[in-house]
UniProtKB/TrEMBL annotation, chains A, B:
Entry-linked PANTHER family: NADH DEHYDROGENASE, NADH DEHYDROGENASE-LIKE PROTEIN RV1812C
Protein known as: FAD-dependent oxidoreductase
InterPro entries registered for this protein in UniProt: cNMP-bd_dom, cNMP-bd_dom_sf, FAD/NAD-bd_sf, FAD/NAD-binding_dom, NDH-2, NDH2-like_C, RmlC-like_jellyroll
Limits of the Cyclic nucleotide-binding domain: 425-511
Family (UniProt): Belongs to the NADH dehydrogenase family.
Keywords, comma-separated and alphabetical: FAD, Flavoprotein, NAD, Oxidoreductase
Species in which this protein is naturally found: Rhodovulum visakhapatnamense
Length: 542, 542
């Protein structure tokens, strides 16, 4: 029976491993790639998708196009049983688990994020890890411009026109550059926005940005970005965030409705669940890319901790989490799996970086290639060409090159394609004093206080006097407005820093209509005002 | 003070009205367009977006590009106060209402849908009215192919590979043609799908499709579609739908996980709320496009009922809801508003259709132009050219023509860009006997029965015998699984046709954690099994 090799993950590492395995084994092995999406993402190009200079479809490649002869399964990995040599996945509408058996398993799932030490960041920041993130960011930026164009509230306008990127690594630097370019080019269509009202900031905790690159290039990058109007704050981190503000570790409060977080790498939950010991949040492998204690389990890419030499201990002794390394690791792991199957010796992974490239957005970059520093457009061009060369197959490269050229010809569009709305049930952070809603606002949800407290100010309908009520954890508000009046009479503000759970109005009404216990709970709150409840089998007057 | 003219809606009607007004008034009037999206959609091209032959961004044009000198407000219209001459809108995060005053108001909001007579269709069918609909459909089709590729359940595979379009008008015919083409071209990448397993159907209630076109062309269209493997069912309507089946008016039950509904036009809620009398679901206007009883309120496009002659009574005496007519109506209403402002006479709207064009998808069409019938690629080319000519401005036409050419050069991509997931709280219809979930399935939600009833089959943990329990309206199930066990022991099926409200697992847990009354309600259901509840201020053992 043919050897079954299953690859978890279809990024640079997983996709190239599958291709290399196919070339080595031909039809003598069954090779399968399991990925949550049916496409492979050119991750370094995501900021250009966010900036609108590449259309989303041109920053990805369908896995089926580049993995001929490999079985591609679009599914979510749930768990691995190393004893039975079985991977459990959920595919389709994801209720019935499917078991996929393997003789050899390659783990190339990448990394996730963990913002738990920065309250509010998970709920209110945008990320830049997936294609959806890039599209969401672009739509979000356009939304802020549209809002700033029509709003008459100065605070709202300032928050909408302040854009903050957290993290001065490759991703953060390229993202902030692309964002600035996109905003600059769009402003002529928004006559109510003065360019001087726009602030774009980059926040980095270390003393400098682009730590992976030689200092002269990092200095050039800082100068370039600053000349383009981007404010760079070094030695600054994020303390907490709300939907309209960011608080830095210096205690500065920035009014900003756009926070892009490119920091916080952490192991994915599925990797954590595997039960393998993790080091620095990654799966330790030996120099042949084998997972310790397993003959037939391998790992590579961002999720793996790969020593580059014997006795590796410093951060620089391990392979950095870049596409350049992942592609080389893939070749090595495929060769080693073939050797293992054929009873031959395995070889260690060895690769010395050929240099580093970073885009600064807007067709400018910095590059260190074979020891030489290059800046500006030539560096960006080398950067783009490098990633083109990293794409699998001549056919793909030609197609993508055509697409990129076409994108350059086309005008950068302003269209804000609708994307994910806010989840109907979500956590929101507020800082002490923040207004949660005002008298006169339209109902927008049912709120439950998770931590902290809020203060509700209401005019007494009989006396006309204002009463104050403090609502703490477990308390709730907003239901009266949904079930009755059309405009609020109350003003609610955060008494202290707090976290609330908000369910939007449509959901609340659906649940009240369908779930009688939920509806009945609110009856006492309604009767006082003569308000009627929706749905229900009893006669409620509606 | 300059005259303020506000146009509600940025489709063909609204957008061209604003352009014509700008040309007539120059700076002497303030012209404002209010639209929910910041772009204008080439609606007839939506099926080609669904089929992937045009990228979404190439089927729209940013309103700011084509409405120079016009104030564009991205906002949702809430209501109109005709006395005070004020439109109330919600912009930005949409909680504070904004009032926009006008001297003249033009209503060009288009139409909505109403599927209320066909249970399940609203919840389970896809539409083709907006750009998001087209993108969602495309992603949905690819998802079905991906699922069919990996599933081992024959029923699931059949449902995934059966695609049903309801409505044989322009939109339905073009959509079904594009879908078939896209599926056909994709199949070579899905080795586990045999082309004979794919069924694509078009369902039309009338005796023939394309009722607006001469019968010979409709016959050609039928022949063309059938030669391409599309099954056409005439004199057939929809009775009801679930997420995996469609029941026709003939009582036939079709296993299909893709239902595209292009029928069911109805007035939008915002139009209904305006309090204007509606006729045939549209706002009646006189021949000068003025709304009856108002000097300064006008309507055009799909939302208006425009008589083409005196004593109009038959359906054909009124302007059809097409782009061709909307563009001409826009010119007339702008001229009449200018006349009204300057105290001159108004002129009636008069236009005779120049012919009809329909795309059959896949670069084939039928056309009746100046009395001549044309078919095949030439007809499709004329159709495309006509819509190119309808675009506003030379610059836009050139840009779009380049984009369309580029789309034709690029390979039709298979990438399934992630789109809207299922709403976390949604209604689902089941037919008697349908299985809702099986023992062994992973928990996927908390269910409340709205109407009908379900039957739960569970093995008694002590005796091992199977018990049956019927749950009717108001009853609920699924909570135990979310709060405790990881796999179901129960099987639940629909006892009779029923409608349930499903809240997904993540939402349920968030709400249970945050809202103590909700959590406490489920405590008695949990204690019996020694299951603990999340969150809460009391010690629940977690």
């Amino acid at each position: 029976m043919a050897t079954r090799i299953v690859v978890l993950g279809g990024g640079f590492g997983g996709m190239y491993t599958a291709r290399a395995l196919r070339r080595r084994f031909g039809r003598k092995a069954e090779i399968e790639v399991i990925n949550a999406q049916n496409y492979f993402v050119f991750q370094p190009l995501l900021p250009e998708v966010a900036g609108g200079s590449i259309t989303p479809a041109h920053a990805v490649s369908p896995l089926r196009f580049v993995l001929d002869g490999v079985f591609v399964r679009k599914a979510v990995v749930d768990s691995v049983d190393f004893e039975r040599k079985v991977v459990t996945v959920f595919q389709g509408i994801q209720r019935r688990p499917t078991e996929v058996s393997y003789d050899h398993l390659v783990i190339a799932l990448g990394q996730g994020t963990d913002f738990s030490r920065m309250p509010g960041l998970e709920e209110h920041a945008l990320k830049m890890k997936t294609l959806e993130d890039a599209r969401r960011l672009r739509g979000h930026i356009i939304e802020q411009l549209e809002h700033a164009q029509v709003t008459e509230l100065p605070d709202t306008k300032r928050g909408a026109l302040t854009f903050t990127v957290v993290g001065g690594g490759f991703s953060g630097v390229e993202t902030v550059g692309e964002m600035k370019e996109m905003i600059d080019r769009s402003l002529r269509f928004y006559p109510k926005i003065d360019p001087s009202e726009v602030r774009v900031q980059l926040i980095e905790f270390a003393p400098r940005i682009l730590n992976e690159m030689p200092e002269p290039l990092a200095d050039y990058a800082v100068g370039h970005l600053e000349r383009h109007g981007i404010e760079i704050k070094l030695r600054t981190g994020v303390k907490s965030a709300t939907h309209r503000q960011l608080v830095t570790t210096d205690g500065e409060v920035i009014d900003t409705r756009t926070i892009v977080a490119t920091i916080g790498n952490a192991p994915l939950p599925v990797v954590q669940r595997m039960g393998l010991p993790l080091d620095k949040g990654r799966i330790p492998v030996d120099r042949t890319l084998r997972v310790a204690g397993h003959d037939n389990v391998w790992a590579l890419g961002d999720c793996a901790l790969i020593p580059l030499k014997e006795g590796a201990s410093e951060r620089t002794d391990f392979a950095p989490p870049t596409a350049q390394f992942a592609v080389r690791e893939a070749k090595r792991v495929a060769a080693n799996i073939a050797a293992a199957v054929r009873g031959r010796d395995l070889k260690p992974f060895a690769y010395a970086s050929r240099g580093a490239l970073a885009s600064l957005g807007a067709k400018r970059g910095v590059a260190n290639v074979f020891g030489h520093n290059i800046t500006g457009f030539p560096a960006w061009f080398i950067w783009r060409s490098y990633y083109l060369a990293l794409l699998p197959g001549i056919g793909t490269r030609i197609r993508v090159m055509i697409n990129w050229s076409l994108d350059m010809l086309g005008a950068r569009s302003l269209v804000q394609l609708k994307f994910y709305g806010k989840p109907p049930l979500r956590y929101v952070y507020y800082r002490a004093g923040d207004r949660i809603y005002n008298a006169g606002d339209r109902s927008d949800g049912f709120y439950t206080v998770i931590s902290g407290s809020v203060e509700m100010e209401r005019p007494d309908p009989e006396t006309g006097e204002t009463t104050l009520r403090v609502i703490g954890p477990g308390g709730h508000f907003g239901e009266r407005l949904i079930l009755g009046a059309t405009r609020r009479k109350t003003t609610v503000r955060a008494n202290e820093d707090c976290k609330v759970l908000v369910m939007n109005r449509e959901e609340f009404l659906m649940l009240a209509e369908g779930f009688s216990a939920f509806r009945e709970y609110f009856r006492p709150y309604m009767d006082k005002r003569g308000v009627t409840l929706p749905g229900g089998d009893e006669d409620t007057g509606r």
